[in-house]
Amino acid sequence: MSMTRLVDTSLRDGHQSLLATRMSTEQCMRVLPMLRDSGYDILELWGGATLDSALRFTGDDPFERLDRFAKCLGTNGPVIRSLCRGQNLFGYSPYADNVVVAFLKESVRSGNRRVRIFDALNDPRNITVPIMAVKTYNGHAEAAISYTTSPVHHIDHFVNFARSILDLGADSLAIKDMAGLLHPETAYDLIRALQTHFPGIPITLHSHCTNGLAITSYVVALLLGVDYIDTAYGPMAGSTSQPPVELMSYFARELGIDLGIDLKLIPRIDAALRGIRQELQSVDTNPQHIGRPWPVEPDPKIKTLVRQAVQRVREYQSSRDKNLLEQAISLIEDQLMIEMGYPPVDRRQLDAQVPGGMISNLHHQLKEQGKLDLLPKILEEVSRVRKAAGYVPLVTPTSQIIGTQAAFNVMTGIPYSMMTREFKALIAGRYGRLPAEPDPDVLQKVLETGEKLCTRRPADYVDEVDLDQILTSDHNIRSHRDVLLSILFPGPAKQFFAKRKASENVHDSGT
Fold first, then answer.
1. E strands, 222-296, in order
2. What Rg, from alpha-carbon coordinates, does the chain have?
3. Model-level pTM?
């Protein structure tokens, strides 16, 4: 029996994609022991937006969260994987090399033993130091390809980028399809190409259900023997999140693939996550459609749909008839997922290429401002702004930069009459090398603001930080970890430290 392993993302990307990253440490800890006991090799638990959100919204220390996770899992439990934005770490801008090294040193030594490192622009220069830092402190550096579609993004482009990051010392590869754009046909070609060019290198496929392509692409990946696929449990799956663990287990069983996990805890994990999602209903992008609980044993109708979809994908392997994949997609998305209570797929986002976490946050922000009606126009403008910016992949921070500029263009009615500092920096090259030349008119507008073109590695323009000086500059900063958080998240960290001090004072006066 062949084997592909699952990685669960429910406690990181799941709630980042569906619940604006609002799960607290306490809520995560209700579920983590059950995940630990389910037999996973790897759990994605940290990184991405969770550090910022913990400080800003849930009142949790991100490093203390990591400590609790590591203690719960123990030395023989699943490996903790985090998501790191390359030279941007867990923040939004390139940081000095000494900050990158110090942060990743602390992360790995605190129990984050596997780090998925990506760059929004697929610029190897932004991945070099993070890979070196993770490996220096005996962590596993999983380097990711930020997948997107455009006139300049093709299989050879991604293979060449993969070669460059493996040459930098990456231990494994990931295909990071953050906006759910990876069609099963391309998944087949890309996975085969990576397996052919880099035999023996472990490959993980990561996608989102945003556009109704991810589940069928995962079935393709299972057939090709990809090493890992990222999934989430039912209440944290589907829509803009990852494919459901439960459904992928059905497909694996049909294909004769051993996933290596214990499925008996599914009902308890589902109930716990369903309760948490109910608690966070105020930030839920789609509270009416979280899917029905998946049975451990699928009923005859589900079995039939799974079997028919697998048959179509198997036939595609020999015929390469794309229509067979389209039939599989329809069986899965229009019948199986709808049958289980998940929302119909809105394929308009295929043009916008907006990732799940960005949609979740944009929906929440516009709702708070009473401007949710602008969302369709902003999504349309995103594709135009992305083209003007050289077809950048949309993933943090570029997704936020392009999304905010698109919102300004829609709200002002005059595109680029207002430009954010970050958008100007992106066009000028301060985040890295753009995949294609930017729109010359937009570039000219940026240069007219006084922005200078940057041709060197982005971190070369960032001054090193005196970590010791920060430690002594604020009486509320009391550890090396606090210093690191204050550098990445100055405002939220300062407020968090002040609240922590005030809470301790209240506690002391009460005793």
1. 228-231, 257-258
2. 22
3. 0.91
